[in-house]
Amino acid sequence: MDELDGNAIGGLLQEVFGTEMTASVGTCATCGATGPVAQTVVYLRAPGTVVRCRTCTSVLMVVVGVRGRNCVDLRGLATLEVR
Amino acid sequence: MAGTTVRGRLTWQVATVSRLADETPSVRTIELQVPGWPGHRAGQHLDVRLTAEDGYQAERSYSIASAPGEPVAITVERLDDGEVSPYLTEELRPGDELELRGPIGGYFVWDADDGGRPLLLVAGGSGVVPLRSILRHHERSGATTATRLLYSSRSLPDVIYRDELDQYRDGVEVIYTLTRSQPPGWTGHAGRVDAALLAKVAWSVSQDPLTFVCGPTSFVEAVAGGLVELGYPPGQVKTERFGATGATGGT
């Protein structure tokens, strides 16, 4: 499966959060690494979109589209800056 | 209120193809008329959505190839097993409509007022597309920032925007490396981008360069790793990956 980065989900995250998110900084709840969303590891068809920490590979975010709605799991994030 | 867009909200909209240009036998630039386009920054992308007659939808991200202020254009590489790119590169005609949303992204972007920091752009294959937007923006804005593009391509005929890139002068250097085949008498670099080539081409860390790397995932990992070995702070190398096949995301 193609391994991408957070740039690839700029559109999806803007849909979910209502604002540009690729430059936003997040903190991994598992290892504490911080960095911009653009630098995360992203799998688009996992199924659903799976976002992993580039440092420790823990799952940070899962976004699943169901019948026109996005279900978002953010348990792997300790913080996420939303501008 | 009808017809207004909430700031920050992304909405799908219909664009019209205004012009097509073949860059290589498998790469085409598609210029679009997008009503109400708010303008874009160099390095941003947009999402394209195709809907089949049975309602099946496929979405892809494509980097914007044009500079801010120019008509929106994307450059698409045909992937023979792709769902979207064969349609975009072979079927689409001027006047056709295309559903898209954008501009997208605020990380992999360069603004002309980003100070006088030298610019290092490193492209693998069609990863050159957002970097071409940056180069055009650099030129159109009259920026004097010293700039280098290191562009890795399989062969000379695979080089996208070659005529345009060959015209750069005055502080903009374009350095090619050809990985698979080189024409007779080729005096440029051959082989993949490695630590030795980066050491030759990259600005010294002490010059505080701004660095953008775009290409297939394995290419970006190799280049970013090589730059970190040269002493580049990892956080200052901006990267964008479009997967092993280019089938998703990125360009």
Structural class by secondary-structure content of chain A: mainly beta
CATH homologous superfamily classification of the largest domain in chain B: Nucleotide-binding domain of ferredoxin-NADP reductase (FNR) module
**CATH fold-level name of the largest domain in chain B:** Rossmann fold
Q: N-to-C terminal Cα separation of chain B, in Å?
A: 34 Å
Number of strands of chain B: 12
Number of helices of chain B: 5
> Most extensive chain contact?
A-B, 25 and 31 residues
By oligomeric state, this entry counts as heterodimer
SSE pattern of chain B: EEEEEHEEHEHEEHEHE
Strand order of the largest sheet of chain A: 1-4-5-6-7
Considering the chains and any ligands shown, give keywords for the structure.
heterodimer, A: 83 residues, 3-stranded antiparallel beta sheet, globular, B: 251 residues, Elongation Factor Tu (Ef-tu), domain 3, Rossmann fold, 2 domains, 6-stranded antiparallel beta sheet, 5 helices
